[in-house]
C-alpha cells in the first residue's frame, strides 16, 4: 500500500492538471503564457491554505522539465540553499520551491539574491501572508506576485472525483461509490482547502468496509465523521440560506448582538465566508455609517484577516467585528443623502456648474468669466464662506439630514447646523 498521502500523490504533474486558478493557468493567462514561451521567472504565490500553491509550483517546473527542489524558509538552512545553487550551476537552471517564503531571514535572502537575478535559480515562493506586508522588498522586487484564490465547491468536487477514479495515483483501483450528499459535504466542509477534502476522502475510503460486491459506499455519515464536521441544515444556494443572510444583516441593524452571532454561526457552518464578509462590510457603511465611521475600516480589516486565516480561525476576527457592528450606534444619513442627490440627477435636475466654481487652469479662462468671483474658504477665519455651490436649478436643495447618534455624527450635526444658520442669516 502506498504510504504517501492521497493529497500528495494527486499533485498535478503539468499545468493542464491544475484545478482552479483559471485566472492564471487558462489559455492566454500569464502562467500559461510562460509555459508556452518556455520561460519561467521567479514569483511569489500567495493565498489561503489548500489552494495548491506548492502543487502549482511543481507543475510549472515539470511542464518545462526543469529540475525542481523544495525547501522551507523556516526549517532549512543556508547550507541547503547552497546545495541548490550548486545543482543549478551543474544543470544550468533549477526551480526552488520555497514554502513560508515570508520567513526568509537576511542571510538566506542575501545568498539567494544573485542567483535569482541571474535566473539560474528560479524562486517560486509560497505564503499565506500578504507579500506586500510580509516579504522583504529586496526579494519582492525581483519576483512577480500572483494571488491564488480559494477553490470553489465545484473545484473541490472535481478534485474528489478525480482522486476517486485515478487508477495510478488515486483510489481508482478500488470500487468506490460516493453518494451525492457525501460528495457535497467533502466539497463544502473543506472550505476551499483541497488537501482537507482529499484527506477526508482517503480516511473515509480506508475506514469503510466494502460490501459483498466489493463496493465501498461513502455516505454522508461517513463524510461527516471523516471531515469532523456536520452537514449544515440548509443549502448554500437555496432560499433558506438567503433568509439566514437577511436575518444576519437585520439583526446587526437592529442591534441584537445575540441574534447577529447566532446567524453568523449558521453562516460559518455553511462555509460561506464570502457572503459573511460582504454583508459585514455593507452593514458597516449602510447601517452604521457616520455614527461610528471607524466601523467600516475595521470591518474591512476583519474581513481581510478572516480571508487570510480561513476557518476555523476566521471566526475570531469575524466575532469581534460583528459584536462591534451590532452594538454600534446606527445612521444611514450619508448614503440616504447621496440617494437624494442621485434621484435629482436621474430625473434631469442638474444644471450648469456655477461660473465661479469652474476650472481656471487654462489660458483664457478668466476671459470666459471662469472662477472670477470664487472665494477661497481658507482665507476666512472659520474656514468657511457663504457662497453658492449647487447649480442654479438646485441651489435651495437639501439632501443631508444628520442623525443625533454617535459622537462623530453629533459633531458633524453641530457643524452642519451652524453653517445652515449662517446661510439663513445672510440671505
From TrEMBL:
Pfam families per UniProt: AAA_assoc_2, MgsA_C, RuvB_N
Keyword Signal included in the entry's annotation: no
Ranges where the AAA+ ATPase domain occurs: 39-151
Top-level taxon of origin: Bacteria
Keyword set, alphabetical order: ATP-binding, Nucleotide-binding
Protein name in the entry: Replication-associated recombination protein A
Originating organism: Lentibacillus halophilus
Amino acid at each position: 500500500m502506498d504510504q504517501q498521502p492521497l493529497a500528495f500523490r494527486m499533485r498535478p504533474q503539468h499545468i493542464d492538471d491544475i484545478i482552479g486558478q483559471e485566472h492564471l493557468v487558462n489559455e492566454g493567462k500569464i502562467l500559461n503564457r510562460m509555459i508556452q514561451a518556455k520561460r519561467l521567472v521567479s514569483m511569489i504565490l500567495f493565498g489561503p491554505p489548500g489552494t495548491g500553491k506548492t502543487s502549482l509550483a511543481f507543475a510549472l517546473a515539470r511542464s518545462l522539465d526543469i529540475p525542481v527542489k523544495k525547501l522551507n524558509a523556516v526549517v532549512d538552512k543556508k547550507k541547503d540553499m547552497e546545495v541548490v545553487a550548486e545543482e543549478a550551476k551543474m544543470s544550468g537552471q533549477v526551480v526552488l520551491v520555497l514554502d513560508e517564503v515570508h520567513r526568509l531571514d537576511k542571510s538566506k535572502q542575501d545568498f539567494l539574491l544573485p542567483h535569482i537575478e541571474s535566473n539560474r535559480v528560479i524562486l517560486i515562493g509560497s505564503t499565506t501572508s500578504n507579500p506586500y506586508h510580509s516579504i522583504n522588498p529586496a526579494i519582492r522586487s525581483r519576483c512577480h506576485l500572483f494571488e491564488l484564490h480559494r477553490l470553489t465547491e465545484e473545484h473541490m468536487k472535481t478534485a474528489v472525483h478525480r482522486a476517486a477514479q485515478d487508477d495510478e495515483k488515486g483510489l481508482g483501483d478500488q470500487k468506490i461509490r460516493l453518494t451525492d450528499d457525501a460528495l457535497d459535504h467533502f466539497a463544502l466542509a473543506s472550505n476551499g482547502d483541497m488537501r482537507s477534502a482529499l484527506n477526508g476522502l482517503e480516511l473515509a475510503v480506508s475506514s469503510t468496509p466494502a460490501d459483498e460486491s466489493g463496493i465501498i459506499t461513502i455516505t454522508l455519515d461517513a463524510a461527516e465523521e471523516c471531515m469532523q464536521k456536520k452537514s449544515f441544515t440548509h443549502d448554500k444556494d437555496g432560499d433558506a440560506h438567503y433568509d439566514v443572510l437577511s436575518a444576519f444583516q437585520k439583526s446587526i441593524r437592529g442591534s441584537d448582538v445575540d441574534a447577529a452571532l447566532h446567524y453568523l454561526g449558521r453562516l460559518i457552518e455553511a462555509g460561506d465566508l464570502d457572503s459573511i464578509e460582504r454583508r459585514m462590510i455593507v452593514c458597516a457603511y449602510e447601517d452604521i455609517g457616520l455614527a461610528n465611521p471607524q466601523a467600516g475600516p475595521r470591518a474591512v480589516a476583519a474581513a481581510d484577516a478572516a480571508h487570510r486565516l480561513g476557518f476555523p480561525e476566521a471566526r475570531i476576527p469575524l466575532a469581534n467585528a460583528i459584536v462591534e457592528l451590532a452594538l454600534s450606534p446606527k445612521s444611514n444619513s450619508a448614503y440616504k443623502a447621496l440617494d437624494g442627490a442621485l434621484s435629482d440627477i436621474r430625473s434631469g435636475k442638474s444644471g450648469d456648474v456655477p461660473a465661479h466654481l469652474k476650472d481656471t487652469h487654462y489660458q483664457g479662462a478668466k476671459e470666459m468669466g471662469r472662477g472670477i468671483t470664487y472665494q477661497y474658504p481658507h482665507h476666512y477665519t472659520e474656514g468657511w464662506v457663504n457662497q453658492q455651490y449647487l447649480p442654479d436649478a438646485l441651489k435651495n436643495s437639501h439632501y443631508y439630514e444628520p442623525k443625533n447618534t454617535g459622537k462623530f455624527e453629533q459633531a458633524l450635526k453641530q457643524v452642519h447646523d451652524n453653517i445652515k444658520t449662517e446661510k439663513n442669516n445672510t440671505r
